[in-house]
Write a structure and sequence with these properties.
This protein is α/β, with parallel strands linked by helices and 651 residues long. Helix 24 links the parallel strand 19 and strand 20.
Length: 651
């Protein structure tokens, strides 16, 4: 009979061999947690390796992503079709599906991209929250699964973990089980050189159930702890005392096993110590069969589940990401026509709220939130109910002042499936959000960020709250759509684009100050072109003024001043550089023209060179200042007259 120890040793040796062959990787964590993972996969985890996208499967998140060899070994042993022994032999090599850290979308069974430590803890919180919200909507027959996480010391040291566990504890996400690889080792040595945190006390303070296991290599104790965790009415933190590099006789317990291969001699010694009489990447038939049988043990459960799920079309649409029904934007289109005739003067943050009032009722899976800035971001509409422990069916999440975890939790909600999340914050605080936005872009998932107070137009709060370099920095990030609309109509168009773009996260950078309606037509979504001529020349173009957001109004004012001087110019609105860059060269040239080009944006010039060449730029070259918005624009010389002077200088 195959014992759990044999099953765990298979994980150990595959991980050690993969790291050894690559001569790169982190063997200590896979060896130290293989016993926990083996018990989890064989005793508890509900999954079907032959149907890896089964919606009611348990989610397994490896937050300590440097231990990727653990996950890859588990997937191969369990029989995932796209996880082969050749892939393990190609670990960490160029083009390999088994990369240095797990990457979502490259391999079945990898639930998220986990590289930056702590992000996995927050994404798992989002997955557990999504499960609770869907369970409230559809019941336990269709949604009833756990989210299990293995994390390390580094995950718990990162600040994002504090934010995430606070959210999870507050919302009592009892289907979330966090298993800590408590080996007391990091890259530099023992954790005692950097921390004396009592993690048990910390989690208890955050309303978690806590369990301590003094031997994370005792299979009975591991099973008992997980079984107890599954019965809790709170999220559970299990502190497993483990030995890093467990099984390597000369190096276990040392930080030397953390990020370096064990070496041929140590692997050979480990084979002798564990009585493993097999060569590299070889698993005995009986052990492999036991793993493969386990990989499909839930197939009958899955089949029964799918029979029930197939009877509920609404549920199938939700879990298959069919969120947008035909005509979902009909009311928005009607509203755009109305707004065009009325021409209101509103801040684009208010415009965003007006758009949400039209689309939230039409997209039941669109859920909102804010980092304690709802009244400023204007992200709550249509009497959206709050998500809380007495009503998970709500559609608005109060994330608190936790931008780091808010953004990562949104990623987890998307990865779990069932919702399109959007959430608000101040644009300047996107600095806190950046790691999770980057992961959203890397994973190619639809997450929408309503980031208001987008320039020196913030005014009196001063330079700490005035984003200057943020537009340029996010435009530099691959696969992110950065929208900066100039009025209500463009805001509506940008929202439409953010909602339909399934493979890219979107940033809506929105103004605090009121802006006039500048558009003259709603026949076509012009923002979809990225940039377009919003106010054309009358005869022969002498210059092109390119602006975004609140500065488009300034550009059009300058155009009028120049017309009085007999100088004919065109004004281009550029709500999304990324979409403009994707247009044909012919279209780009038609829009930008051959005349001198002037850029106008209340931000730094960086990145504008590709549109204006050596042309003039009216914008910022320093941090902002505290004062009324209109006076700041004058102080920094971002005015219509400054644009006129730039045009005159150019021609």
């Amino acid at each position: 009979m195959v014992e759990l120890r044999d099953l765990s040793n298979a994980v150990k040796f595959l991980a050690a061999d993969a790291v050894g062959k690559a001569n790169s990787g982190h063997p200590g964590m896979p060896l130290g947690t293989s016993d926990i993972a083996t018990v989890l996969f064989h005793k508890f985890l509900k999954f079907d390796a032959k149907n890896p996208k089964w919606f009611d499967r348990d989610r397994f998140v490896l937050s300590a992503g440097h231990g990727s060899a653990l996950l890859y070994s588990l997937l191969y042993l369990s029989g995932y079709d796209d996880a082969t022994i050749d892939d393990l032999k190609n670990f960490r090599q160029l083009g390999s599906k088994m990369a240095g850290h797990p990457e979502y979308g490259h391999l079945s069974g990898v639930e998220n991209t986990s590289g930056p430590l702590g992000q996995g803890v927050a994404m798992a919180t989002g997955m557990a929250l999504s499960e609770a919200m869907l369970n409230a909507r559809f019941g336990s027959d269709l949604v009833n699964h756990y989210t299990y996480v293995i994390c390390g010391d580094g995950c718990l040291m990162e600040g994002i973990s504090e934010e995430a566990i606070s959210v999870a504890g507050h919302l009592k996400l009892n289907k979330l089980i966090l298993m800590w690889d408590n080996n007391q080792i990091t890259i530099d040595g023992k954790t005692s050189i950097t921390t004396t945190t009592d993690q048990i006390a910390r989690f208890k303070a955050n309303n978690w159930n806590t369990i301590e296991v003094d031997d994370g290599h005792d299979f009975d104790k591991i099973e008992e702890a997980i079984e107890k965790a599954r019965k809790s009415d709170k999220p559970t933190f299990i502190a497993f005392k483990t030995i890093i590099g467990h099984g390597a006789p000369n190096k276990q317990g040392s930080h030397k096993t953390h990020g370096s291969p064990l070496g041929d001699e140590e692997i050979l010694a480990m084979r002798k110590a564990l009585n493993w009489n097999c060569g590299e990447f070889v698993i005995p038939d009986d052990i492999l069969k036991a793993w493969r049988d386990n990989g499909v043990k839930s197939s009958s459960v899955r089949e029964a589940y799918e029979a029930k799920a197939n009877e509920n079309k609404e549920f199938l649409d939700v879990v298959n990401n069919k969120f947008l029904k035909a005509g979902w934007n009909n009311k928005l289109n009607e509203a755009k026509a109305k707004w065009l005739s009325e021409k209101p003067k509103v801040a684009t943050r208010k415009a965003s709220q007006m758009v949400l009032e039209q689309i939230v009722p039409e997209i039941p899976s669109l859920i909102g939130g804010s980092a304690d800035l709802t009244a400023s971001n204007l992200t709550k509409v249509c009497d959206m109910k709050d998500v809380n422990t007495s009503d998970y069916i709500g559609r608005y999440i109060n994330y608190g002042i936790r931008e780091h975890s808010m953004t990562a939790i949104m990623n987890g909600i998307i990865l779990h499936g069932g919702f399109i999340p959007y959430a608000g914050g101040f644009f300047v605080f996107s600095d806190y959000m950046r790691p999770a936005i980057r992961l959203a872009a890397l994973m190619q998932i639809r997450s929408i960020y309503v980031l208001t107070h987008d320039s020196i137009g913030v005014g009196e709060d001063g330079p700490t709250h005035q984003p200057i370099e943020h537009l340029a920095s996010f435009r530099a990030m691959p696969n992110v759509l950065v929208f900066r609309p100039c009025d209500l109509i463009e805001t509506a168009e940008c929202w439409e684009l953010a909602v339909v773009n399934e493979k890219r996260p979107s940033i809506l950078a929105l103004s605090r100050q009121n802006l006039p309606t500048l558009r003259t037509s709603v026949d076509k979504n012009m923002a979809a072109l990225g940039g377009y001529v919003i106010s054309p020349e009358k005869d022969k173009r002498k210059a092109t003024i390119i602006a975004t957001g609140s500065e488009v109004e300034i550009a059009i004012q300058a155009q009028k001043h120049l017309a009085e001087k007999g100088i004919d110019v065109a004004v281009v609105s550029m709500p999304c550089c990324e979409l403009f860059d994707s247009q044909t060269r012919k279209y780009q040239e038609e829009v930008l023209g051959n005349a001198p080009r002037i850029g106008v944006e209340a931000a730094i010039k960086y990145g504008w060179e590709k549109y204006i060449g050596n042309g003039e730029f009216v914008g910022m070259n320093s941090f902002g200042a505290s004062g009324p918005a209109e006076k700041l624009y004058q102080h920094f010389n971002i005015t219509a007259l400054a644009v006129v002077d730039a045009v005159l200088k150019s021609i």
